[in-house]
Protein backbone atom coordinates (compact mmCIF):
# COMPACT_ATOMS: atom_id res chain seq x y z
CA UNK A 1 0.00 0.00 0.00
CA UNK A 2 1.76 3.13 -1.25
CA UNK A 3 1.84 6.34 0.80
CA UNK A 4 -0.44 5.07 3.57
CA UNK A 5 1.65 6.58 6.38
CA UNK A 6 1.81 9.98 4.70
CA UNK A 7 -1.95 9.86 4.05
CA UNK A 8 -2.64 9.14 7.72
CA UNK A 9 -0.28 11.91 8.83
CA UNK A 10 -1.96 14.38 6.48
CA UNK A 11 -5.47 13.51 7.68
CA UNK A 12 -4.67 12.60 11.29
CA UNK A 13 -6.53 15.50 12.92
CA UNK A 14 -9.61 14.95 10.79
CA UNK A 15 -9.64 11.22 11.55
CA UNK A 16 -9.51 11.96 15.28
CA UNK A 17 -12.13 14.72 15.14
CA UNK A 18 -14.55 12.58 13.15
CA UNK A 19 -14.30 9.82 15.73
CA UNK A 20 -14.79 12.30 18.57
CA UNK A 21 -18.02 13.55 16.98
CA UNK A 22 -19.26 9.97 16.69
CA UNK A 23 -18.40 9.28 20.33
CA UNK A 24 -20.47 12.26 21.47
CA UNK A 25 -23.69 10.44 20.51
CA UNK A 26 -24.91 8.23 23.42
CA UNK A 27 -25.98 5.21 21.36
CA UNK A 28 -26.93 3.02 24.34
CA UNK A 29 -28.95 0.14 22.92
CA UNK A 30 -29.87 -1.30 26.33
CA UNK A 31 -31.83 1.79 27.36
CA UNK A 32 -34.89 2.79 25.31
CA UNK A 33 -34.48 6.39 26.49
CA UNK A 34 -31.60 6.66 24.00
CA UNK A 35 -33.50 5.31 20.99
CA UNK A 36 -33.19 8.52 18.98
CA UNK A 37 -29.46 8.69 19.69
CA UNK A 38 -28.95 5.11 18.48
CA UNK A 39 -30.83 5.91 15.27
CA UNK A 40 -28.85 9.14 14.88
CA UNK A 41 -25.64 7.12 15.07
CA UNK A 42 -26.85 4.78 12.32
CA UNK A 43 -27.44 7.81 10.10
CA UNK A 44 -23.94 9.09 10.86
CA UNK A 45 -22.40 5.72 9.93
CA UNK A 46 -24.31 5.74 6.64
CA UNK A 47 -22.88 9.14 5.73
CA UNK A 48 -19.37 8.04 6.74
CA UNK A 49 -19.52 4.95 4.52
CA UNK A 50 -20.74 7.03 1.59
CA UNK A 51 -17.90 9.51 2.10
CA UNK A 52 -15.42 6.62 2.35
CA UNK A 53 -16.26 5.46 -1.17
CA UNK A 54 -18.99 2.84 -0.89
CA UNK A 55 -21.14 2.82 -4.03
CA UNK A 56 -24.22 1.53 -2.18
CA UNK A 57 -25.15 2.30 1.41
CA UNK A 58 -28.50 1.58 3.04
CA UNK A 59 -30.05 1.53 6.48
CA UNK A 60 -31.75 -1.84 6.77
CA UNK A 61 -34.67 -2.03 9.18
CA UNK A 62 -34.97 -4.89 11.68
CA UNK A 63 -37.41 -5.54 14.52
CA UNK A 64 -34.98 -3.57 16.67
CA UNK A 65 -32.24 -1.14 15.70
CA UNK A 66 -31.18 -1.04 12.04
CA UNK A 67 -28.18 -2.57 10.31
CA UNK A 68 -26.10 -0.17 8.21
CA UNK A 69 -25.03 -1.98 5.04
CA UNK A 70 -22.55 -0.68 2.49
CA UNK A 71 -20.58 -2.14 -0.40
CA UNK A 72 -18.15 -1.44 -3.19
CA UNK A 73 -17.87 -4.18 -5.80
CA UNK A 74 -15.02 -3.53 -8.21
CA UNK A 75 -14.79 -6.96 -9.87
CA UNK A 76 -16.96 -10.01 -9.10
CA UNK A 77 -13.98 -12.25 -9.89
CA UNK A 78 -11.99 -10.77 -7.00
CA UNK A 79 -12.35 -11.80 -3.34
CA UNK A 80 -14.95 -10.08 -1.16
CA UNK A 81 -14.22 -9.00 2.42
CA UNK A 82 -17.18 -8.45 4.76
CA UNK A 83 -16.44 -5.99 7.58
CA UNK A 84 -18.58 -6.33 10.71
CA UNK A 85 -18.79 -3.84 13.56
CA UNK A 86 -21.33 -2.26 15.88
CA UNK A 87 -22.34 1.31 16.60
CA UNK A 88 -24.14 0.75 19.91
CA UNK A 89 -22.35 1.09 23.24
CA UNK A 90 -22.62 -0.13 26.82
CA UNK A 91 -24.37 2.02 29.45
CA UNK A 92 -21.77 4.28 31.12
CA UNK A 93 -22.82 3.55 34.70
CA UNK A 94 -21.56 4.18 37.32
CA UNK A 95 -21.23 7.78 36.11
CA UNK A 96 -19.56 8.99 39.32
CA UNK A 97 -16.49 6.85 38.60
CA UNK A 98 -15.72 8.62 35.31
CA UNK A 99 -12.98 11.23 35.45
CA UNK A 100 -14.64 13.06 32.56
CA UNK A 101 -18.20 12.80 31.17
CA UNK A 102 -18.56 9.56 29.14
CA UNK A 103 -20.05 11.29 26.09
CA UNK A 104 -17.79 14.34 26.12
CA UNK A 105 -14.60 12.83 24.63
CA UNK A 106 -11.25 14.15 25.80
CA UNK A 107 -7.69 13.20 24.86
CA UNK A 108 -5.33 12.57 27.76
CA UNK A 109 -1.86 11.05 27.98
CA UNK A 110 -1.45 7.85 30.01
CA UNK A 111 1.43 5.59 30.94
CA UNK A 112 0.53 3.12 28.19
CA UNK A 113 -0.61 5.79 25.75
CA UNK A 114 2.05 8.52 25.91
CA UNK A 115 0.77 9.96 22.63
CA UNK A 116 -2.68 10.35 24.15
CA UNK A 117 -5.88 8.34 24.38
CA UNK A 118 -9.48 9.27 23.64
CA UNK A 119 -11.58 8.86 26.79
CA UNK A 120 -15.26 8.18 26.06
CA UNK A 121 -17.81 5.39 26.18
CA UNK A 122 -17.44 3.38 22.95
CA UNK A 123 -13.93 4.70 22.27
CA UNK A 124 -12.65 1.20 21.52
CA UNK A 125 -15.80 -0.92 21.94
CA UNK A 126 -16.61 -0.57 19.19
CA UNK A 127 -16.93 2.85 17.60
CA UNK A 128 -13.19 3.55 17.49
CA UNK A 129 -12.30 0.16 16.08
CA UNK A 130 -15.22 0.09 13.67
CA UNK A 131 -14.29 3.55 12.41
CA UNK A 132 -10.73 2.41 11.67
CA UNK A 133 -12.24 0.30 8.89
CA UNK A 134 -14.18 3.24 7.50
CA UNK A 135 -11.03 5.36 7.33
CA UNK A 136 -9.00 2.46 5.88
CA UNK A 137 -11.66 2.20 3.18
CA UNK A 138 -11.39 5.93 2.54
CA UNK A 139 -7.63 5.63 2.02
CA UNK A 140 -7.95 2.71 -0.41
CA UNK A 141 -10.68 4.30 -2.53
CA UNK A 142 -9.28 7.85 -2.58
CA UNK A 143 -5.86 6.59 -3.68
CA UNK A 144 -7.29 3.98 -6.06
CA UNK A 145 -5.69 1.10 -4.13
CA UNK A 146 -8.71 -1.01 -3.18
CA UNK A 147 -7.56 -4.50 -4.30
CA UNK A 148 -10.84 -6.40 -3.87
CA UNK A 149 -14.54 -6.07 -3.14
CA UNK A 150 -15.73 -4.90 0.27
CA UNK A 151 -19.02 -5.05 2.16
CA UNK A 152 -19.85 -3.44 5.50
CA UNK A 153 -22.41 -4.67 8.03
CA UNK A 154 -22.56 -2.37 11.06
CA UNK A 155 -25.25 -3.20 13.63
CA UNK A 156 -26.80 -1.42 16.59
CA UNK A 157 -27.60 -4.26 18.99
CA UNK A 158 -24.33 -6.05 19.75
CA UNK A 159 -24.36 -4.98 23.38
CA UNK A 160 -27.83 -6.52 23.87
CA UNK A 161 -27.29 -9.85 22.13
CA UNK A 162 -27.61 -9.21 18.35
CA UNK A 163 -30.88 -11.16 18.14
CA UNK A 164 -32.18 -9.14 15.19
CA UNK A 165 -28.86 -9.33 13.37
CA UNK A 166 -29.16 -13.11 13.40
CA UNK A 167 -32.44 -12.81 11.49
CA UNK A 168 -30.92 -10.25 9.13
CA UNK A 169 -28.01 -12.55 8.31
CA UNK A 170 -30.28 -15.55 7.68
CA UNK A 171 -32.52 -13.49 5.38
CA UNK A 172 -29.70 -11.83 3.42
CA UNK A 173 -27.20 -14.58 2.68
CA UNK A 174 -26.73 -13.56 -0.96
CA UNK A 175 -26.29 -9.87 -0.11
CA UNK A 176 -23.71 -10.77 2.53
CA UNK A 177 -21.87 -13.42 0.51
CA UNK A 178 -18.12 -13.10 1.11
CA UNK A 179 -14.76 -14.88 1.21
CA UNK A 180 -13.75 -13.76 4.70
CA UNK A 181 -15.24 -11.70 7.54
CA UNK A 182 -13.07 -9.05 9.19
CA UNK A 183 -13.83 -7.77 12.70
CA UNK A 184 -12.05 -5.38 15.05
CA UNK A 185 -13.82 -5.85 18.38
CA UNK A 186 -10.96 -7.48 20.28
CA UNK A 187 -7.63 -6.33 21.69
CA UNK A 188 -3.93 -7.11 21.52
CA UNK A 189 -1.29 -7.92 24.12
CA UNK A 190 0.67 -4.64 24.01
CA UNK A 191 1.63 -1.88 21.61
CA UNK A 192 4.98 -3.59 21.06
CA UNK A 193 3.51 -7.12 21.15
CA UNK A 194 0.89 -7.47 18.40
CA UNK A 195 -1.50 -10.38 18.61
CA UNK A 196 -4.41 -11.83 16.65
CA UNK A 197 -7.40 -13.26 18.49
CA UNK A 198 -8.03 -16.84 17.38
CA UNK A 199 -10.73 -17.85 19.84
CA UNK A 200 -13.73 -16.35 21.62
CA UNK A 201 -15.73 -17.68 24.52
CA UNK A 202 -19.46 -18.22 24.28
CA UNK A 203 -21.97 -16.63 26.62
CA UNK A 204 -25.09 -17.42 28.60
CA UNK A 205 -26.70 -14.49 30.42
CA UNK A 206 -29.58 -14.90 32.88
CA UNK A 207 -31.46 -12.96 35.53
CA UNK A 208 -32.70 -14.61 38.72
CA UNK A 209 -35.47 -13.52 41.06
CA UNK A 210 -36.06 -14.88 44.57
CA UNK A 211 -39.39 -14.14 46.26
CA UNK A 212 -40.17 -14.72 49.93
CA UNK A 213 -43.09 -13.11 51.80
CA UNK A 214 -45.77 -11.22 49.91
CA UNK A 215 -44.51 -7.84 51.14
CA UNK A 216 -41.47 -6.27 52.79
CA UNK A 217 -41.42 -7.13 56.50
CA UNK A 218 -40.16 -5.52 59.72
CA UNK A 219 -36.90 -7.34 60.48
CA UNK A 220 -37.53 -7.19 64.21
CA UNK A 221 -41.01 -8.66 64.12
CA UNK A 222 -40.34 -11.27 61.45
CA UNK A 223 -36.56 -11.78 61.39
CA UNK A 224 -35.59 -15.38 62.06
CA UNK A 225 -39.16 -16.60 61.49
CA UNK A 226 -39.50 -16.29 57.70
CA UNK A 227 -37.09 -16.85 54.84
CA UNK A 228 -35.04 -13.76 53.92
CA UNK A 229 -34.72 -13.77 50.09
CA UNK A 230 -31.45 -11.82 50.17
CA UNK A 231 -29.83 -14.23 52.62
CA UNK A 232 -31.02 -17.19 50.59
CA UNK A 233 -29.97 -15.76 47.22
CA UNK A 234 -26.43 -15.11 48.46
CA UNK A 235 -26.18 -18.66 49.80
CA UNK A 236 -27.45 -20.09 46.50
CA UNK A 237 -24.96 -18.03 44.51
CA UNK A 238 -22.11 -19.01 46.83
CA UNK A 239 -22.93 -22.68 46.28
CA UNK A 240 -22.34 -22.37 42.53
CA UNK A 241 -18.56 -22.71 43.09
CA UNK A 242 -16.73 -25.26 45.21
CA UNK A 243 -13.53 -24.77 47.24
CA UNK A 244 -11.45 -25.04 44.02
CA UNK A 245 -13.61 -22.44 42.24
CA UNK A 246 -15.00 -25.21 40.07
CA UNK A 247 -18.59 -24.59 38.93
CA UNK A 248 -20.95 -27.03 40.66
CA UNK A 249 -23.81 -27.16 38.14
CA UNK A 250 -24.28 -30.84 37.11
CA UNK A 251 -23.26 -31.40 33.48
CA UNK A 252 -21.65 -27.96 33.13
CA UNK A 253 -18.24 -29.33 32.09
CA UNK A 254 -19.46 -32.28 29.99
CA UNK A 255 -18.42 -30.78 26.63
CA UNK A 256 -15.61 -28.47 27.72
CA UNK A 257 -12.69 -28.52 25.28
CA UNK A 258 -9.49 -29.49 27.10
CA UNK A 259 -6.37 -28.09 25.49
CA UNK A 260 -3.31 -30.30 25.23
CA UNK A 261 -0.10 -29.64 27.16
CA UNK A 262 1.48 -28.53 23.90
CA UNK A 263 -1.26 -25.97 23.22
CA UNK A 264 -1.07 -24.64 26.76
CA UNK A 265 2.71 -24.37 26.42
CA UNK A 266 2.28 -22.25 23.26
CA UNK A 267 -0.14 -19.98 25.11
CA UNK A 268 2.39 -19.55 27.91
CA UNK A 269 4.88 -18.00 25.48
CA UNK A 270 2.85 -14.79 25.37
CA UNK A 271 4.51 -12.07 27.49
CA UNK A 272 2.74 -11.72 30.83
CA UNK A 273 3.74 -10.22 34.17
CA UNK A 274 1.59 -11.37 37.07
CA UNK A 275 2.93 -8.57 39.26
CA UNK A 276 2.05 -5.93 36.65
CA UNK A 277 -1.38 -7.51 36.24
CA UNK A 278 -2.06 -7.26 39.99
CA UNK A 279 -0.66 -3.75 40.18
CA UNK A 280 -2.86 -2.52 37.33
CA UNK A 281 -5.95 -3.82 39.15
CA UNK A 282 -4.75 -2.81 42.64
CA UNK A 283 -5.17 -6.33 44.02
CA UNK A 284 -2.76 -8.35 46.16
CA UNK A 285 -3.61 -11.75 44.68
CA UNK A 286 -5.31 -13.36 41.71
CA UNK A 287 -8.26 -15.71 42.14
CA UNK A 288 -9.76 -18.50 40.07
CA UNK A 289 -10.06 -22.15 39.18
CA UNK A 290 -7.38 -24.36 40.72
CA UNK A 291 -4.89 -25.86 38.27
CA UNK A 292 -4.90 -23.08 35.67
CA UNK A 293 -2.87 -19.93 35.12
CA UNK A 294 -4.40 -16.46 35.03
CA UNK A 295 -4.27 -16.32 31.23
CA UNK A 296 -5.88 -19.75 30.98
CA UNK A 297 -8.61 -18.88 33.45
CA UNK A 298 -9.65 -15.85 31.43
CA UNK A 299 -9.55 -17.43 27.99
CA UNK A 300 -9.81 -21.23 27.72
CA UNK A 301 -11.84 -22.03 30.84
CA UNK A 302 -15.56 -21.44 31.42
CA UNK A 303 -16.66 -19.06 34.17
CA UNK A 304 -19.73 -18.00 36.14
CA UNK A 305 -19.96 -14.48 37.53
CA UNK A 306 -22.56 -12.33 39.24
CA UNK A 307 -22.84 -9.06 37.27
CA UNK A 308 -25.29 -7.33 39.55
CA UNK A 309 -27.29 -8.02 42.72
CA UNK A 310 -29.98 -5.96 44.42
CA UNK A 311 -32.92 -6.03 46.80
CA UNK A 312 -34.19 -4.54 50.03
CA UNK A 313 -33.20 -1.07 51.18
CA UNK A 314 -30.05 0.47 49.69
CA UNK A 315 -30.65 4.17 50.31
CA UNK A 316 -28.99 6.48 52.81
CA UNK A 317 -29.32 5.62 56.47
CA UNK A 318 -31.02 2.55 57.94
CA UNK A 319 -34.28 0.75 57.25
CA UNK A 320 -34.78 -2.51 59.11
CA UNK A 321 -36.55 -4.55 56.47
CA UNK A 322 -36.74 -8.08 55.15
CA UNK A 323 -37.25 -7.68 51.41
CA UNK A 324 -40.02 -9.50 49.62
CA UNK A 325 -37.87 -9.91 46.51
CA UNK A 326 -34.23 -9.89 45.51
CA UNK A 327 -32.52 -10.19 42.14
CA UNK A 328 -29.22 -10.96 40.47
CA UNK A 329 -27.81 -10.92 36.95
CA UNK A 330 -25.44 -13.78 36.15
CA UNK A 331 -23.24 -14.41 33.12
CA UNK A 332 -21.44 -17.60 32.15
CA UNK A 333 -18.54 -17.43 29.71
CA UNK A 334 -18.32 -20.67 27.75
CA UNK A 335 -15.59 -22.41 25.79
CA UNK A 336 -15.87 -24.17 22.41
CA UNK A 337 -18.22 -27.18 22.37
CA UNK A 338 -20.37 -25.80 25.19
CA UNK A 339 -23.79 -25.01 23.74
CA UNK A 340 -25.11 -21.82 25.33
CA UNK A 341 -28.76 -22.86 25.20
CA UNK A 342 -27.97 -26.18 26.90
CA UNK A 343 -25.91 -24.41 29.58
CA UNK A 344 -28.79 -22.00 30.19
CA UNK A 345 -31.15 -24.95 30.74
CA UNK A 346 -28.66 -26.63 33.08
CA UNK A 347 -28.35 -23.45 35.11
CA UNK A 348 -32.11 -22.91 35.29
CA UNK A 349 -32.81 -26.48 36.41
CA UNK A 350 -30.02 -26.46 38.99
CA UNK A 351 -30.82 -23.04 40.45
CA UNK A 352 -34.50 -23.83 40.82
CA UNK A 353 -33.74 -27.23 42.38
CA UNK A 354 -31.39 -25.86 45.07
CA UNK A 355 -33.94 -23.31 46.31
CA UNK A 356 -35.03 -24.10 49.89
CA UNK A 357 -38.65 -24.13 51.00
CA UNK A 358 -40.04 -20.72 51.89
CA UNK A 359 -39.03 -18.95 48.67
CA UNK A 360 -39.91 -19.07 45.00
CA UNK A 361 -37.20 -18.82 42.35
CA UNK A 362 -37.56 -17.54 38.79
CA UNK A 363 -34.77 -17.74 36.18
CA UNK A 364 -35.14 -15.56 33.08
CA UNK A 365 -32.69 -16.17 30.21
CA UNK A 366 -31.60 -13.00 28.42
CA UNK A 367 -29.21 -13.79 25.58
CA UNK A 368 -26.19 -15.86 24.65
CA UNK A 369 -24.04 -17.27 21.90
CA UNK A 370 -21.56 -19.94 20.95
CA UNK A 371 -17.78 -19.84 21.32
CA UNK A 372 -15.55 -19.69 18.27
CA UNK A 373 -12.07 -20.76 17.16
CA UNK A 374 -10.46 -19.73 13.89
CA UNK A 375 -7.64 -21.82 12.33
CA UNK A 376 -4.20 -20.24 12.10
CA UNK A 377 -3.45 -21.98 8.79
CA UNK A 378 -6.20 -20.15 6.88
CA UNK A 379 -5.54 -17.58 4.16
CA UNK A 380 -7.23 -14.95 6.32
CA UNK A 381 -4.99 -15.53 9.31
CA UNK A 382 -1.86 -15.58 7.12
CA UNK A 383 -2.91 -12.29 5.49
CA UNK A 384 -3.53 -10.68 8.87
CA UNK A 385 -0.19 -11.93 10.18
CA UNK A 386 1.67 -10.44 7.20
CA UNK A 387 -0.14 -7.12 7.65
CA UNK A 388 0.88 -6.89 11.32
CA UNK A 389 4.46 -7.82 10.45
CA UNK A 390 4.61 -4.92 8.02
CA UNK A 391 3.29 -2.28 10.40
CA UNK A 392 4.58 -3.54 13.77
CA UNK A 393 7.84 -5.03 12.54
CA UNK A 394 7.22 -8.38 14.24
CA UNK A 395 5.07 -11.47 13.86
CA UNK A 396 1.81 -11.33 15.85
CA UNK A 397 1.04 -13.92 18.54
CA UNK A 398 -2.13 -16.03 18.18
CA UNK A 399 -4.23 -15.49 21.31
CA UNK A 400 -7.50 -16.86 22.71
CA UNK A 401 -9.78 -14.13 24.09
CA UNK A 402 -11.92 -14.32 27.19
CA UNK A 403 -14.58 -12.12 25.65
CA UNK A 404 -17.57 -13.05 23.53
CA UNK A 405 -18.90 -11.94 20.16
CA UNK A 406 -21.89 -14.31 19.94
CA UNK A 407 -22.68 -13.51 16.32
CA UNK A 408 -19.34 -14.87 15.00
CA UNK A 409 -20.37 -18.53 15.25
CA UNK A 410 -23.61 -17.70 13.44
CA UNK A 411 -21.65 -16.03 10.64
CA UNK A 412 -19.82 -19.25 9.93
CA UNK A 413 -22.99 -21.31 10.17
CA UNK A 414 -25.03 -19.11 7.83
CA UNK A 415 -22.43 -17.50 5.54
CA UNK A 416 -19.93 -20.42 5.45
CA UNK A 417 -16.90 -18.18 5.87
CA UNK A 418 -14.21 -17.73 8.50
CA UNK A 419 -13.79 -14.66 10.69
CA UNK A 420 -10.50 -12.86 11.29
CA UNK A 421 -10.30 -10.82 14.49
CA UNK A 422 -7.89 -7.90 14.17
CA UNK A 423 -8.14 -5.94 17.41
CA UNK A 424 -6.02 -2.95 18.43
CA UNK A 425 -7.08 -1.93 21.94
CA UNK A 426 -5.24 -2.90 25.15
CA UNK A 427 -6.73 -4.82 28.07
CA UNK A 428 -6.11 -1.77 30.24
CA UNK A 429 -8.34 0.42 28.05
CA UNK A 430 -11.33 -0.23 30.34
CA UNK A 431 -13.96 -1.44 27.89
CA UNK A 432 -17.37 -1.78 29.61
CA UNK A 433 -15.93 0.19 32.54
CA UNK A 434 -15.75 3.82 33.61
CA UNK A 435 -13.01 5.77 31.81
CA UNK A 436 -12.98 3.60 28.68
CA UNK A 437 -10.33 4.91 26.32
CA UNK A 438 -8.55 4.13 23.05
CA UNK A 439 -4.98 5.14 22.25
CA UNK A 440 -4.60 7.60 19.39
CA UNK A 441 -1.56 5.59 18.29
CA UNK A 442 -3.63 2.38 18.28
CA UNK A 443 -6.44 4.01 16.30
CA UNK A 444 -4.08 5.25 13.61
CA UNK A 445 -2.09 1.98 13.61
CA UNK A 446 -5.31 0.13 12.87
CA UNK A 447 -6.02 2.39 9.91
CA UNK A 448 -2.48 1.70 8.67
CA UNK A 449 -2.68 -2.10 9.11
CA UNK A 450 -6.16 -2.89 7.77
CA UNK A 451 -5.48 -1.99 4.10
CA UNK A 452 -2.52 -4.39 4.14
CA UNK A 453 -4.87 -7.20 5.12
CA UNK A 454 -6.88 -6.46 1.96
CA UNK A 455 -3.69 -6.51 -0.10
CA UNK A 456 -2.35 -9.79 1.26
CA UNK A 457 -5.71 -11.55 1.36
CA UNK A 458 -6.21 -10.75 -2.32
CA UNK A 459 -2.71 -11.89 -3.24
CA UNK A 460 -2.94 -15.15 -1.23
CA UNK A 461 -6.37 -15.95 -2.70
CA UNK A 462 -5.04 -16.15 -6.27
From TrEMBL:
Its EC number is 3.4.13.-. Keywords: Dipeptidase, Hydrolase, Metal-binding, Protease. Coiled coil: none annotated. The keyword Nuclease does not apply. Gene3D superfamilies: 3.30.70.360, Zn peptidases. SUPFAM superfamilies: Bacterial exopeptidase dimerisation domain (SSF55031), Zn-dependent exopeptidases (SSF53187). It is an enzyme of class 3 (hydrolase). Residues 199-358 form the Peptidase M20 dimerisation domain. It comes from the Bacteria. GO terms for molecular function: dipeptidase activity. It holds the Pfam family M20_dimer. PANTHER family: BETA-ALA-HIS DIPEPTIDASE, SUCCINYL-DIAMINOPIMELATE DESUCCINYLASE. This is Dipeptidase. It comes from Thalassobellus suaedae.
